[in-house]
Amino acid sequence: MKFNTKTIHGGQKLDPAYNAVIPPIYQTTTYAQFTPGEHKGYEYSRSKNPTRHALENSFASIENGEYGIAFGSGMAAIDAVLKLLQPGDEVISTNDLYGGSYRLFTKIYQKFGIRFKFIGMENASKIEEHINKNTKLIWVETPTNPLLNIIDVKTTAKIAKRHNVLLAVDNTFATPYLQQPLDLGADIVMHSVTKYIGGHSDLVMGALVVKDKALADSLYFIQNASGAICAPQDSFLALRGIKTLHVRMQRHCENGKAVAEYLLKHPKIENVYWPGFKNHPNHKIAKSQMKDFGGMVSFITEGNDYNEAINIVQNLKVFTLAESLGGVESLAGHPASMTHASIPKEERDKIGVVDALIRLSVGIEDEEDLIEDLKQAIG
Predict the structure, then answer these.
(1) What CATH number does the domain located at 3-242 have?
(2) Active-site residue list
(3) CB atoms < 10 A from the CB of 296, how many?
(4) Which residues make beta-bridge pairs with 92?
(5) What are the tens digits of pLDDT across the range 174-207?
(6) Model-level pTM?
(7) Is 264 helix (H, G, I), strand (E, B) or coil?
């Protein structure tokens, strides 16, 4: 089954009660049992719910995995991965990553004895020199948030396998429409479903997808024991979002390219970050592991001017100044004060998340309207 068909039919079955084409919202806490322990596969909705189960099957299908696990948020999904570890274990993470991930790593798990190394991963072969006997997990974002760096998943996976280390890839920016890390050798794929997969800025959810049954069993246990599940209504919305993922992503990519190329030519813009440019440091890797280059674009104003950046985001009219990304509407963000504010300024500056950086989530509106909006805001 091809991807576009999987988004609509992958992992799905007609509902057994009335052959409903769309999985119903099973808004129930518990399920009747015939005798103690004998039931129709469902006991209690924290453990398993038919609507969430249908969604988890869809996650597995579109990521070419075997097992999907849905959580109440992307952070809850990351939290479940970290609960696989023990005090004294080490995690190697990219140094350009979502501020919420950095906060969870450093403010929560570091005090429980998990150690983290934040390194540049643009040259994947250099990751190996940071691995030691305590390394148990490599955490990758690609494209990264917010600088759109590209990390070679296939090379990183080979290194991880040599050292018996788990490789987890945050695939939120690319989505399975553009990139399927499990096929490149990753062990775990993570999504903030809130973003492109949900696609309509109306739910908060996370997901993990794996191929290995033992790993899946461990993550299902954590999901049930910790209780960070998503609700049936949100599961229904995510399933609906998945059905149009392929057509939405095509337009996101088209508009993202148009916006990136416009900004590149603008005299008041100093740097534009978008992996589709041929001079992007890892453009060839992006081209080899991604179907297209996505709808995320970041840029820095001329002279690295903080005040000018703030003026631009405040003057936008079609783009909305707001947290999050991946919805059908275009959003603009100022990472230093919004999505990445939890990372200390000195650390942000080291990796290039400067105070003049603006991040755009380019939506599916008419590209001419988006460019006109940028034109009037930048001047």
Answers:
(1) 3.40.640.10
(2) 46, 98, 170, 195
(3) 27
(4) 117, 138
(5) 999 999 999 999 999 999 999 999 999 999 999 9
(6) 0.96
(7) helix
